């Protein structure tokens, strides 16, 4: 019986923690002994699994436990580069990076923490890093505190932080993914609002004005001023809708799972009722009328 009861329980670390760690560290590859091929951010401060996700999913079981030294020595980097060339378009970036990688046997990798000047990890910098790239808004008054959504990272911001991101919106697969597109002008998001407007018999929720806005803040302002309805109810609904859109975006990006607009609105209805039971009175009377 170990002295400490948590011995052997593993590190409590979910996919979000891993993403934050990968985005926060820069690994200089040396002998390839200490890091994992797909999971470590060793290719220009990015993880191979983010550069070539299809390659990663194909070879997840093998590649995730391989170390670069096992793939880049022995059979040689060029052989791996040839394998990757079979799927050259999606793996082009990783292929080019590997061609320029060489190992230095006998020298250890270095890991640099990006959020401090000296490259050393501190808890305070890790805490601050969680808010980098979040959408800034002056609409704190709009947000009804008990239901404030988690921070929203979108592609335009994630791109500057080295996080995995989508160039094209995963909801409509047409437009570039930005915060404004994802939460306001995407045709998927607009369809969700149309269905919500029908459900609540309140046509003002129809996203007819979304096209004239240039930012998420502007859209929230417009939604916060809708007539003949409780502002608090609309604010809660807005947060709930944004939250479900963000979760859908993540399910498509990370888990390759897709929900239709109808099933997403089904979830929003369920959640709205649950919030009502939990104490969101204005929302409860809005959805129950
Ligand atoms: Zn879209």
UniProtKB/TrEMBL annotation:
Organism: Panicum virgatum
Reverse transcriptase zinc-binding domain span: 121-193
Top-level taxon in the UniProt lineage: Eukaryota
Protein name stated in the entry: Reverse transcriptase zinc-binding domain-containing protein
